[in-house]
């Protein structure tokens, strides 16, 4: 009897893990953090903490829904790449139909939550981000052009704007600066990984930059984008949106980013690219936390 219970518990937790993988839960958590910061930096309009938290859950559900659709649409590519060949839809352990029902459930619940706890503008803009990632990037751009992630990166950059609009109900210049930060961060974030995994993309015939233009050219682009990112990150300070604390953290983080990108280009070791990719994730997380701390705790 106990062994049946144990077996049931194990297969249940394996299923839960599969569905979390489908949602790209770690990416979604970082997206959600950037949305929280968008909310936190917006002018205070008296919304309750509960409404704010439920709004973030709504955004996270739509982002998860987009990730599940990405697994369905990309399963042909995922099957051909080492990094992705054990994903649940690629292996068939979750069927297309199950994944589709799951993604639509997340979509409907997330959209309704945004209408109920934020506003229609936030709900529609989040849906635009979903379509941008799940269809325009995944179905069209990823398979056609090495600029895929530059254009597609726009969807992943939207959460701070979504957080801000959920507070104010309208768009203004400041949240677009936050969008620009993630937008310029995305190419070096992804190309560092793509350099490391070039063979995967070659095998799957996906026209990522290292495949179409070579590793050296991609490294140069990573370095140039790291300089651009450093400049863009200063803008919140220059317009008076953030103060000295944010500026110091930003300069430090981006200094390390540029150094690592320079190292990747000129003194590359075997693991330089993947280390830069991992660093990029920590960098964005700390940068956004610094924006928040700068506004509320300093
Ligand atoms: C079009 C834009 C983007 C592309 C092409 C991209 C690409 C990737 C890829 C291929 C991975 C590896 C995933 C894996 O091995 O499962 C990854 C990981 C990750 N990305 Fe991005 N990314 C993009 C935008 C973003 C954005 C906007 C964020 C957050 C704000 C983000 C956060 C992360 C995180 C946290 C991970 C680590 C996930 C893990 O360890 O499972 N990415 N990204
Ligand atoms: C509603 C909303 C805010 C949507 C955000 C969309 C979202 C989840 C963006 C994250 C981007 C991402 C993980 C790209 C991975 O590229 P890939 O799919 O080519 O990577 P893979 O090879 O790992 O599948």
From TrEMBL:
Pathway connected to this protein: Porphyrin-containing compound metabolism; heme O biosynthesis; heme O from protoheme: step 1/1
EC numbers on record: 2.5.1.141
Entry keyword Cell membrane: yes
Membrane topology annotation: Multi-pass membrane protein
Catalytic reactions on record: heme b + (2E,6E)-farnesyl diphosphate + H2O = Fe(II)-heme o + diphosphate
GO molecular function: protoheme IX farnesyltransferase activity
Keywords: Cell membrane, Heme biosynthesis, Membrane, Transferase, Transmembrane, Transmembrane helix
Localization in the cell: Cell membrane
InterPro entries, per the entry: Protohaem_IX_farnesylTrfase, UbiA_prenyltransferase, UbiA_prenylTrfase_CS, UbiA_sf
Chief location: membrane
Transmembrane segments: 27-46, 52-73, 99-117, 123-141, 148-165, 177-195, 222-239, 245-262, 274-293
Family per record: Belongs to the UbiA prenyltransferase family. Protoheme IX farnesyltransferase subfamily.
Function of the molecule: Converts heme B (protoheme IX) to heme O by substitution of the vinyl group on carbon 2 of heme B porphyrin ring with a hydroxyethyl farnesyl side group.
HAMAP family noted in UniProt: CyoE_CtaB
PANTHER family: 4-HYDROXYBENZOATE SOLANESYLTRANSFERASE, PROTOHEME IX FARNESYLTRANSFERASE, MITOCHONDRIAL
Protein name (record): Protoheme IX farnesyltransferase
Organism the protein comes from: Pseudoalteromonas spongiae
